[in-house]
Amino acid sequence: MQDILPPDIYLWQKVESVAREVFSSYGFRELRLPVVESTSVFTRSIGENTDIVEKEMYTFMDKGDRSISLRPEGTASVVRCYVEKNLHTLPSPQKFCYSGPMFRYERPQSGRFRQFYQIGVEAFGDPNPRMDAEVIAMLRQCLQKLGLKEITFNVNSIGCPECRPVYREKLVDFFAGGLDRLCPDCNRRYHTNPLRILDCKVDRCVEMRKGAPRVTDYLCNECKEHFNKVLSLLDVLGISYLVNPDMVRGLDYYTRTTFEVTSSNLGAQNAVAAGGRYDRLVKEFGGPETPAIGFAIGMERIIELLKNSVAHDFPTPDVFIAAIGELAARESIVIADRLREKGFWIELGDDDASLKSQMRRADRLSSKYVFIIGEDEMNSGRLKWKKLSDSSQGEISMFEITDFLLQKSV
Ligand code: HAM
Fold this sequence. Notes:
By secondary structure, the chain is an alpha+beta fold. Helix content is 38%, strand content 21%. It is built from 15 helices and 16 strands. It has helices at residues 8-25, 39-46, 51-56, 75-84, 129-145, 164-176, 184-192, 203-208, 221-236, 281-284, 299-309, 326-341, 355-364, 375-380, 401-407, and strands spanning 29-30, 36-38, 59-61, 67-70, 94-103, 115-124, 151-157, 241-243, 257-263, 271-277, 292-298, 319-323, 346-348, 369-373, 382-387, 393-397. A hairpin with a 5-residue loop joins strand 15 (382-387) and strand 16. Helix 1 (8-25) packs across helix 11 (299-309) and helix 5 runs parallel beside helix 9 (221-236). The two termini are 37 Å apart. The mean pLDDT is 95.
């Protein structure tokens, strides 16, 4: 779990504001949901035999003897809310976004944290492949607006309850003869969730699964048609993608389209965002049959990419006011207050300190301008200004400060 401090926080705010802007242009509206839910909200949606539910949830009993869990992801809570608040009675599609901390008791490593942040979206009520393409396009627009390059859109279809069992059988047959060559986790997965073997990072499992049947070869006609339409719309939108039949998501609720955006500039944890369709989940939560699709962006990983690949200007004070003497200090607090009201970032020097040490502090803060007010300036009503980046300087009337700053485009 990490503390997030300036200047990194500026990158966090940038990602949040870009996402907010892009999502609202696609009609996604914000939901704010609790970080704790009844444990069953997650077990019944993410799946009993997933790593998240088996090993990674922060689950405990509350004082009322109820089993509650810190949310390991956002989709389950959004679906719980959608059903509980009868949002399905509103006209379809209903499109929501959310952001906040998620908690998974994973082995921490670069890009993997126990408290991490997601920005996510969920769209309900539209089975059309156009919605899949729109959601993926929205994700692309976010990443593009942030200036991220060298990212790959991996897409797949994992079928539906009609065709996936057929594929599962084929996979079980394929691995049956080589169980001794799979890692202990995959031996367990073989019985509980054989598709997850495709996702295992252990070398001998990677080797063993070469030549395994591919899910895309076993899709039923409806799923195949749906997937082909999604791909053709991605083509129309000019989104390059990689069909990756080995991409199996770690959550059980998915049906049909799944996708993951990966970056070669991250280590082993290279997925910056991921999502997919989950056409059966609302019904499983007791709501009407409602197709749905969404994704979540992993904030820490996006920030890591931004830090390494894009140049950033972090905000610095607009003006540092150095005051000499008590009268000047009184005047400078009034000037500062007036300018702050206009939205400028103003820092005040310590009038007990020398001008030299106040100037040093202005420099350390990388203030754009320094205003100097002493006895002479108080008498003349004009203050001295200095621009730190090029050392230009001059004088202005104390009544013209706002115009001066606006003219200089501060
Ligand atoms: P997920 O693949 O589990 O999907 O997580 C989405 C993203 O969250 C990952 O691609 C990654 O960037 C980030 N992430 C996951 N775990 C960690 C971690 N321990 N530390 C740092 N970052 C992490 C979901 O959570 C689904 N709810 C996405 C979704 C929304 N599907 C449909 N709608």
